[in-house]
Specification:
Layout lengths: L1 E4 L5 H12 L7 E5 L6 H5 L3 E4 L5 H7 L3 E6 L8 H14 L4 E6 L12 H12 L3 E7 L1 E2 L1 H4 L2 H7 L1 E3 L6 E4 L1 H13 L7 E4 L3 E2 L1 H12 L5 E3 L2 H10 L4 H15 L8 H7 L6 H10 L1
Parallel strand pairs: 1-2, 1-4, 2-3, 4-5, 5-6, 6-10, 7-9, 8-12
Antiparallel strand pairs: 9-11
The chain binds NADP nicotinamide-adenine-dinucleotide phosphate.
Length: about 280
């Protein structure tokens, strides 16, 4: 029986596998799946069972999840297809006789007005209706969502439409460590975790990036329609521009602010404060 981590070729899934190994999980008990198993060749060398799985290919999922005891379903990236894809993973986990499926969701997925969360809410419902114990890992924002755009910020400033709203941020590896705790320890079945670190404004993020880089990053607060135009002007397709502008509307409304208690409990320590998290993300 094994622990299966899907999307292990992605930043988050990889960090979960690394955290499981760092905590002494037997590599032979771990299955890491990807559409691109060749990207996980180093894990094969370390004794991890790497299997090919495409969320859009149920036969590949059945093969990849064979023998699974616990499954971490990492949400996919193909907007509009994700409910069907995630449903296929959940069905394969049930067919494999898994005892637990944990799913990476979004803050307050079942009740939020955030457009981005609709597929997460639908997936949560499929999982809750499935004959398997569920854990909902409602990850708030990665700090890397911001530090990954530092070049743009240095050129144009950090443009947002959040007003005084706060967004809970933590390092991707901290959310990954929390997921590893859920996979390695008992007592999580049926739990919904609202996970996030320090709740910060975009102005505070701009200040933290300025401090870490030694270069001034201005913060420009605009309206949601103005942000959408900025994103369109930067070349984003209309649906993406609408979705990202809607995220800022959600932040302004407090929909991405969660208490740090759940992440603190799963980590066994407080998540890093913003300035340290930004520094670590930028040095990675
Ligand atoms: N909370 C946040 O701030 C935040 C931010 C960004 C994303 N997310 C969500 O969290 C997830 C993990 O984040 P991340 O940073 O690891 O993203 P990432 O680095 O972009 O990785 C995405 C992963 O999803 C896999 N994937 C996509 N479509 C798939 C499919 N049809 N079948 C199998 N695997 C598929 C990719 O596999 P391949 O290598 O085969 O492409 C990759 O491993 C994302 O997929 C997204 O749903 C959350």
């Amino acid at each position: 029986m094994s622990i299966v981590v899907t999307a292990a070729s992605g930043h988050f899934g990889r960090a979960v596998v690394e955290s499981l190994l760092a905590r002494g999980a037997d590599p032979a008990s771990l299955v890491a799946t990807s559409r691109r198993p060749e990207a996980l060749a180093d894990l094969v060398e370390r004794g991890v069972d790497v299997r090919r799985a495409d969320y859009s290919d149920p036969a590949s999922l059945r093969r990849a999840l064979e023998g699974a005891e616990k499954v971490l379903l990492v949400s996919g990236t193909e907007f509009g297809q994700r409910v069907a894809q995630h449903t296929a993973v959940i069905e394969a986990a049930v067919e494999a006789g898994a005892s637990l499926v944990a799913y990476t969701s979004a803050p307050y997925a079942a009740t939020t007005s955030l457009a981005l969360a609709a597929e997460h809410a639908a997936t949560e419902q499929v999982l809750l209706d499935a004959p398997v114990a569920a854990v909902l890992l409602r990850n708030a924002w990665y700090v890397e969502n911001y530090t990954g755009q530092v070049e743009t910020y240095l050129e144009h400033g950090l443009v947002g439409a959040t007003g005084d709203g706060r967004v809970s941020v933590a390092l991707r590896r901290e959310y990954a460590e929390a997921a590893a705790t859920v996979l390695l320890t008992d007592g999580h079945a049926g739990t919904t975790y609202e996970l996030g670190g320090e709740a910060v404004t975009l102005a505070e993020i701009a200040a933290a990036v300025s401090e870490a880089t030694g270069r001034e990053v201005a913060h420009h607060d605009v309206t949601v329609p103005e942000l959408e135009q900025v994103l369109l002007g930067a070349g984003l397709p209309e649906p993406a521009a609408q979705t990202y502008a809607d995220v800022d509307r959600g932040i302004a409304a407090g929909e991405l602010q969660v208490p740090a208690d759940d992440l603190t409990r799963l980590l066994g320590r407080a998540p890093l404060p913003l300035r340290d998290a930004v520094r670590e993300a930028l040095s990675a």
